[in-house]
Amino acid sequence: MGFSGGGSNILKNHTHDSGILQDGGNLNMQGVTEGNMSAGSITQSDGNNLQELLIGTPTQVPRVNGAGTALEYHSPVDLTGSMELLATEDLGAAGANVAVTGTWSATDYSYFIIKGGFQNDNSGGTPSLRFRMNNIAAGDYVTNMILNTAGTLSATTSGFQTSGLICTSPVIPPSSTETMQLVLTVELSEQNAGNTFRTNWSSTSMWNQAGVGPSDTEQITGYLGQNGVSSITKVDFFFSDASNFSVGSNLQLYGVKRS
Fold it and tell me: DSSP letter at 174?
């Protein structure tokens, strides 16, 4: 390349700007310009000079190093089975519903976990706590329940209702001092090789908390008798009467990642 000034063997400072006369033109990176680098390497600056970053191994990806000063290759952690917080709701005022909305597919998550803390603000009677999935209000919810009231066990089957029974008033009574906590596992499970899905749910022991210890408890299992529900778009908790949830009633939806 020709450069002016200082004799024919003197190379002036240049930028390879094609818009500048005698600046060398574009630096050809398409198999023409040579560099003393290994195959697959990339360059990065250390703040003063260009450095060579050797290519990583198969399945490795580049990331910023721990010091935040350079790129490096690393093997990413397999996220299969990792739990991800998908949505949360925390009532800032009393309300008839505690709900979360979005779109979460069973192809991405092997199952879902719902954590909730609820209090009835005593604006109604003695309701049960119920929920719906995806705004489905058909009579397809079935719940089996075991209730422990003061050490006495009883069972309830709530079949083919327009919402799922979560717990009865002994566990979440109208009260300004008593609350109820739950952890609900929801699976959109394949029924057959044709990927026909059905929603199943179950809970840990839900208990009425008054003072320092648990009182009445309930456990449930249930299913939504509709095939093909392969994603969650809404989870909605409400009371069976005109009762409202108190301020601070809350809900979190988690998803466990599928491979």
Answer: B
For residue 77, give the DSSP letter: P
pLDDT of residue 10: 67
* Structure confidence at residue 2 (pLDDT): 45
Distance CA 131, CA 253 (A): 14
75 close to 60: Cβ distance less than 8 angstroms:
yes
Burial 145-179 (b: 16+ CB within 10 A, else e): bebbeeeeeeeeebeebebbbbbbbbbbbbeeebb
Helix, strand and coil content of the chain, in percent to the nearest 5, comes to 0, 50, 50
User: Could you tell me which residues come within 8 angstroms of residue 151 by beta carbon, excluding any fewer than 6 positions away?
Assistant: none
DSSP bridge partners of 98: 237
If we measure between CA atoms, which residue out of 166, 155, 156, 162 comes closest to residue 225? 162
At residue 94, the pLDDT reads 94
Give the residue extent of every domain in the chain: 42-74, 83-257
Contact 99, 132 (CB under 8 A): no
Residue pair 227/197 in contact by the 8 Å Cβ criterion: yes
The mean pLDDT values, 10 residues at a time, for the chain of 259 residues are: 54 77 78 83 90 88 88 77 92 96 92 94 86 96 91 90 93 87 90 75 87 75 88 96 94 91
CA gyration radius, the chain = 31
Task: Give the N- to C-terminal CA distance of the chain in Å, as an integer.
Answer: 55
